[in-house]
């Protein structure tokens, strides 16, 4: 910037002779770096944040305190939140989301650890291919995903049922039975997101020093002991990250039930995200939908905090302090 | 109903994309998406119409003749897609009319919702003299497009009666006389015979209802008993005697093993029409007649159509199966031109004929229904005339159906109740009570005694 370059003090020749305190004072006095300068540089970010983050947050919160009564947007205070507490479908949605969370996140992260260790193994040929193959689902679009799993899990002539049928199992009513619909969602999510977690673990694995394994080997540790006592502790930061990210992602779950089961049958796969969508876009009840959104935010914040605490307390360094 | 079909997950997914885009556009653009404004009620400039596939074909067919009357007018008929159009309209109205076109094609089941939730967004067409057309349309259809104060928010475009379609070849093979069936009890008995003799199930129900709403059969059965989800006051009646009875009929058919569980996708429907997945009867909107001719030409002579059987002997044998309207949003800068086009397409015999030939939507305009050749026998239906049957149905004294602004909630609550009854063996009375309670809890409406 011109104003900076033209400032005499910026010239290197004058610097060595100038004592530090006066230079600071004079710099302020000349206004070579007006206080506003950093904010000008930050302005795009701040403006975007205000327009696309803060404003929607506040606007949604205001909406959650209103209701459309006879066409007029009316302030109703906490009515939407009180209604939420008495809404059996909201509890159904919370329960479904909880079940999917408890089953899917440990399953997926366990699989991801195994995959990451395999990807990292020198014994595996064509490692780059496998890494990419498992990561590809994450870039797959929602629509393509819907077609794929709709065809795979079709309850009649779907591919999965044909394969199972050839070994004498089934047919399983994948998407049309309350129990199996949940299973289908879990399978689809696992397929979609395991690769992503595995790549994060892989990056962390590569930062574990090889000497630790060598030392363990010298001490006579078996492969299983090395995995349990070296690999898993080494993965702790990545585990914390993926557990929290997956938990948040699952609590916000919308895509899979939306494209595969539409929240059905009989609300068996209705998630909080689906219920929010239904209230907003099917029933035009934006106030209630916003209240669901804020309730979900609160739940996510609390659960994330708990997870953060749990992981921190288990860390041996923390215990010593 | 054509306008409520959630045809497949993909279409819904496309909807999501469209809705997101609409939100983004509504948020960022300051100008409305309407064309150039005409000065002071002059009929000129450009107007945009939002509709979907077949109704759009109908409206496009009327453009050349309209432009002969008004050469300065340019009309852009956009196939926004169904059900994507509902969310696009919702977003536009929520944004105070920004981005809406000049003419909207609106389903009867969404009309009440838009009028109640977004008051002042649809123009009162009485300002353009629309009340002169009232006597030319069936009164029930006209009233559903009007407000409680008599304001006219939409001109009926599509007025559907229920077609009770049946496979004449299947009935013949089973030795059952379709004309002898008077009630649904008779029909279920016939269904058992048909299943025994031919192996063909009586009808299809999407039990899990994960693709479409799957309430069409219940709505028909309930309408045949002069009832609906709501009464005229807007109180909840779905758990009343008629509603429970309808669900019991469906359950009885299922217990008899004569119901096929078919997912409610467009492809699954076509398979039924084409006889790839046989079913004996298919109650559907009158528009299905046109779809059959277009999509299953090889089945000519195998499909027949008649009035639906009554629930009680001697009861109602007619039911309205939805419809659509053309409306003008108040945000349009060219309302006069928009009105002239709507009036030409739906309020003149010339326009109606062009629209019907182009899109095949069943009209409600009396001069069109009475016009020569409209009710002519059809070769496809073996000399029967579907149109004559639909006209006879619309002439019966069918009740005004009050969709209210909470139809979507009631529809969902019913569909879930049906799923519980058919898949989890719940008791129909109990399931319907639960559904009614849920709607009452969500909407604050009272349950009628």
Structure overview:
- The complex is a heterodimer of chains A (321) and B (449).
- With 321 residues, chain A is an all-alpha fold.
- Chain A has two domains: 33 residues; 239 residues, MetI-like fold (Orthogonal Bundle), CATH 1.10.3720.10.
- Chain A has 16 helices and two strands.
- In chain A, strands 1-2 form a two-stranded antiparallel ribbon.
- In chain A, helix 5 packs across helix 14 and helix 12 runs antiparallel to helix 15.
- Chain B has 449 residues and is α/β, with parallel strands linked by helices.
- Chain B contains 18 helices and nine strands.
- The N terminus of chain B is likely disordered.
- At the A-B interface, helix 7, helix 13 and helix 14 of A face helix 1, helix 4, helix 5, helix 17 and helix 18 of B.
In brief:
The complex is a heterodimer of chains A (321) and B (449). Chain A has 321 residues and is mainly α.
Which labels suit this protein?
heterodimer, A: mainly alpha, MetI-like fold, two-stranded antiparallel ribbon, 2% strand, disordered N terminus, B: 449 residues, D-Maltodextrin-Binding Protein, domain 2, 2 domains, seven-stranded mixed β-sheet
Please outline the helices and strands:
The complex is a heterodimer of chains A (321) and B (449).
Chain A: H1 2-6, H2 20-30, H3 37-64, E1 66-69, E2 72-75, H4 79-85, H5 88-120, H6 127-135, H7 142-152, H8 159-166, H9 178-205, H10 210-218, H11 223-234, H12 236-251, H13 255-260, H14 272-282, H15 286-314, H16 316-320
Antiparallel strand pairs in A: 1-2
Chain B: H1 9-28, E1 45-51, H2 53-61, H3 63-69, E2 73-79, H4 84-94, E3 103-107, H5 108-117, H6 139-144, E4 155-167, H7 168-174, H8 184-198, E5 203-205, H9 216-223, H10 241-255, E6 259-261, H11 266-273, E7 281-285, H12 288-295, E8 303-306, E9 320-327, H13 335-347, H14 349-359, H15 366-370, H16 386-395, H17 407-424, H18 428-443
Parallel strand pairs in B: 1-2, 1-3, 5-6
Antiparallel strand pairs in B: 3-9, 4-7, 4-8, 4-9
């Amino acid at each position: 910037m011109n104003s900076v370059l033209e400032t005499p003090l910026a010239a290197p020749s004058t610097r060595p002779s100038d004592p530090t305190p006066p230079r600071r004072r004079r710099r302020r006095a000349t206004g070579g770096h007006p206080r506003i300068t950093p904010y000008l540089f930050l302005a795009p970010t701040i403006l975007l944040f205000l327009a696309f983050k803060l404003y929607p947050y506040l606007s949604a919160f205001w909406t959650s305190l209103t209701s459309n009564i006879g066409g007029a947007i009316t302030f109703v205070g906490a009515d939407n939140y009180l209604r939420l507490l008495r809404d059996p479908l909201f509890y159904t949605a919370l329960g479904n989301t909880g079940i999917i969370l408890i089953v899917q996140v440990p399953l997926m992260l366990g699989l991801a650890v195994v995959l990451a260790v395999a990807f990292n193994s020198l014994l595996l040929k064509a490692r780059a291919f496998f890494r990419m193959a498992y990561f590809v689902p994450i870039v797959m679009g929602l629509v393509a995903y819907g077609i794929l799993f709709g065809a795979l899990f079709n309850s009649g002539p779907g591919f999965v049922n044909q394969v199972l049928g050839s070994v004498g199992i089934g047919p399983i009513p994948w998407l049309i039975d309350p129990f199996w619909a949940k299973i289908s969602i879990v399978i689809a999510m696992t397929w979609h997101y395991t690769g992503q977690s595995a790549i994060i673990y892989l990056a962390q694995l590569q930062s574990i020093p090889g000497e630790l394994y060598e030392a363990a080997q010298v001490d006579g540790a078996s492969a299983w002991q090395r995995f349990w006592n070296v690999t898993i502790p080494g993965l702790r930061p990545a585990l914390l990250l993926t557990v929290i990210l997956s938990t948040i992602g699952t609590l916000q779950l919308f895509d899979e039930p939306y494209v595969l089961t539409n929240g059905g049958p009989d609300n068996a796969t209705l998630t909080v995200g689906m219920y929010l969508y239904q209230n907003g876009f099917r029933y035009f009840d934006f106030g209630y939908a916003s209240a669901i959104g804020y309730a979900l935010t609160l739940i996510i914040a609390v659960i994330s905090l708990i997870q953060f605490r749990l992981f921190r307390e288990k860390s041996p360094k923390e215990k010593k302090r | 109903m054509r306008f409520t079909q959630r045809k497949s997950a993909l279409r819904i997914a496309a909807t999501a994309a469209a809705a997101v885009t609409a939100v983004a556009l509504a948020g960022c653009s300051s100008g409305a998406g309407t064309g150039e404004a005409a000065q002071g009620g002059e009929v000129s400039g450009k107007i945009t119409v939002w509709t979907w596939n077949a109704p759009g074909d109908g409206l496009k067919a009327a453009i050349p003749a309209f432009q002969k009357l008004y050469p300065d007018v340019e009309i852009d008929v956009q196939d926004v897609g169904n059900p994507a159009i509902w969310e696009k309209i919702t977003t536009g109205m929520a944004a105070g009319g920004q981005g809406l076109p000049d003419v909207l094609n609106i389903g009867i089941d969404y009309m009440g919702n838009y009028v109640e939730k977004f008051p002042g967004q649809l123009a009162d067409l009485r300002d353009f003299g629309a009340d002169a057309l009232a006597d030319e349309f069936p009164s029930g259809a006209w009233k559903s497009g009007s407000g409680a104060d008599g304001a006219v928010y939409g001109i009926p475009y599509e007025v559907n009666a229920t077609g009770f379609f049946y496979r004449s070849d299947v009935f013949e093979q089973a030795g059952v006389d379709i004309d002898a069936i008077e009630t649904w009890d008779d029909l279920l008995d016939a269904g058992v015979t048909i299943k025994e003799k031919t192996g063909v199930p009586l009808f299809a129900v999407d039990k899990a209802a994960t693709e479409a709403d799957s309430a069409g059969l219940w709505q028909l059965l309930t309408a045949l008993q002069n009832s609906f989800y709501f009464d005229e006051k807007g109180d909840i009646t779905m758990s009343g005697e008629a509603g429970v009875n309808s669900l019991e009929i469906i359950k009885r058919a299922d217990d008899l093993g004569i119901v096929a569980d078919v997912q409610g996708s467009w492809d699954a429907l076509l398979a039924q029409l084409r006889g790839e997945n046989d079913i004996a009867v298919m109650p559907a909107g009158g528009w299905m007649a046109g779809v059959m001719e277009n999509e299953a030409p090889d089945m000519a002579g195998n499909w027949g159509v008649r009035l639906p059987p009554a629930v009680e002997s001697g009861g109602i044998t007619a039911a309205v199966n939805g419809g659509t309207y053309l409306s003008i949003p108040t945000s349009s800068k060219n309302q006069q031109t928009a009105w002239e086009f709507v009036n030409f397409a739906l309020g003149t015999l010339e326009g109606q004929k062009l629209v019907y030939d182009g899109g095949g939507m069943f009209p409600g305009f009396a001069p069109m229904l009475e016009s020569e050749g409209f009710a002519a026998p059809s070769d496809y239906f073996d000399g029967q005339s579907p149109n004559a049957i639909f006209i006879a149905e619309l002439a019966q004294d069918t009740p005004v159906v009050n969709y209210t602004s909470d139809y979507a909630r009631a529809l969902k609550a019913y569909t879930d109740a049906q799923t519980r009854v058919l898949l989890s063996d719940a008791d129909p009375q109990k399931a319907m009570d639960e559904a009614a309670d849920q709607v009452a809890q969500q909407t604050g409406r009272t349950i009628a005694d």
